[in-house]
Design brief:
The chain is an all-alpha fold. A two-stranded antiparallel sheet has the order 1-2. The structure holds Phenylacetyl coenzyme A (FAQ). Phenylacetyl coenzyme A (FAQ) binds next to helix 2, helix 6 and helix 9.
């Protein structure tokens, strides 16, 4: 039997109305929420960025947890433990934000431990000295703040809201790193050298955290049009360097860039050339600690299998009990 129903001529218009609504919300600087229609590309781009960000927070616990047992005082140990726990919390908010877009926690974790997912290049560098705790706080959390404060205004509601809380905590992290370096710089000659050596090792990788240069950043244009990203990679990198220069002067630390100079015309600090070959090597899995970081994450996942099983068994029991009570 042939259908007498003719195709709804407004069917494609319905989609376009939804798309128009989406575009209107973006234009009005309003927020897209999980219930709203969104283009598939927008959803995918957010899952990509948010899951990479979540993985970075989780892998990012490793370089600092390396020093928890060896922190030089009880106070430093307590602060470092709290900081590493904060990073775990950030990972969890971000995984939850990605889940509102339909991504599953299992899929994201599987991609990470299979080595298929990206996480920030910065966490593939070693932490051989205590001063590295200072450099991570000052430079890595400092870069994270510069990059993430604008993300508090990301067009996707759950991501922007997660970033507000994360940025507050990152701000504390940055200050504690600065304070570690300040104390070392006010110490013995050996301590000053340890701080300078650490900054020499972390400075360039921290600049790479902002991503490739604008003319080599395939995701930026669309991401900025959708108001996920608010500024380009180079713009944020420049802001970061402008912020660091006066802080380095207070510390008495030299930023390891002989070409760094103030440009009177632009009123900005011009920097030397970044070694993008190193960046691409790290992204390809060939950084100093890539293999170790992933192996440790896999081990942690395997060692936690019993916790997941116990939690699932408990949830099953609770659900059976609730059903029994409802039936009685
Ligand atoms: N490392 O086209 P674009 C933290 C990839 S959290 C690795 O410019 P986009 C807190 C990029 O994913 C640090 N991969 O990409 C903490 C893309 O690959 P895909 C993490 C990188 O997205 C502190 C490709 O290159 N922060 O530090 C990197 O527009 C202390 C092309 O790049 C965030 O994730 C990199 N550095 O811009 C924790 C912030 N850069 O996906 C513990 C949110 C680029 O096409 C201790 N994310 N790539 O295969 C963002 O703002 C952006 O995603 C960017 C990259 C700026 C990272």
């Amino acid at each position: 039997m042939t259908s007498t129903i003719t195709p709804d001529p407004s069917a494609s218009a319905v989609i376009s109305v939804e798309e128009q609504h989406f575009n209107d919300l973006i234009d009005a600087d309003s927020r897209i929420e999980p219930r709203d229609w969104m283009p598939e590309g927008y959803r995918k781009s957010l899952v990509r960025q948010i899951s990479q960000h979540a993985h970075s927070e989780i892998i990012g616990m490793q370089p600092e947890s390396n020093w928890i047992t060896r922190a030089p005082s009880l106070k430093r140990k307590a602060i470092l433990m709290a900081k590493v726990q904060d990073e775990a919390g950030h990972g969890l908010y971000l995984y939850s934000a990605a889940q509102t877009l339909g991504a599953t926690r299992d899929d994201m974790t599987d991609a990470l431990i299979a080595g298929k997912a990206r996480y920030s290049s910065i966490f593939n560098y070693p932490t051989p000295s205590w001063a590295d705790m200072g450099s991570i706080g000052w430079l890595v959390d400092g870069a994270a703040i510069c990059n993430q404060v604008p993300l508090c205004r990301a067009s996707y509601g759950p991501y922007g809201r997660a970033m507000v809380r994360i940025c507050k905590e990152e701000s504390f992290h940055q200050r504690q790193g600065f304070e570690i370096l300040l104390e070392l710089m006010q110490g013995t000659e050996e301590q000053r050298q340890m701080a300078q050596d650490s900054v020499n090792r972390w400075y360039w990788p921290a600049l790479m955290m902002f991503g490739p240069p604008d003319d080599d950043s395939p995701n930026s244009a669309q991401s900025m049009a959708w108001k996920i990203k608010r500024h380009s990679n180079d713009e944020l990198r420049q802001r970061f360097v402008n912020m660091l220069v006066p802080q380095a002067a207070v510390l008495g630390i030299t930023l390891p860039d002989p070409e760094l100079h103030f440009n009177e015309d632009t009123q900005q600090w011009d920097l030397g050339v970044i070694d993008w070959t190193e960046f691409h090597e790290v992204l390809a899995g060939r950084g100093p600690n890539n293999a170790q970081r992933l192996q440790r994450r896999r081990d942690a996942h395997d060692n936690g299998a019993w916790v997941r099983e116990a939690a699932a068994a408990y949830a099953r029991k609770q659900s059976a009990r609730t059903k029994e009570m409802a039936a009685s």
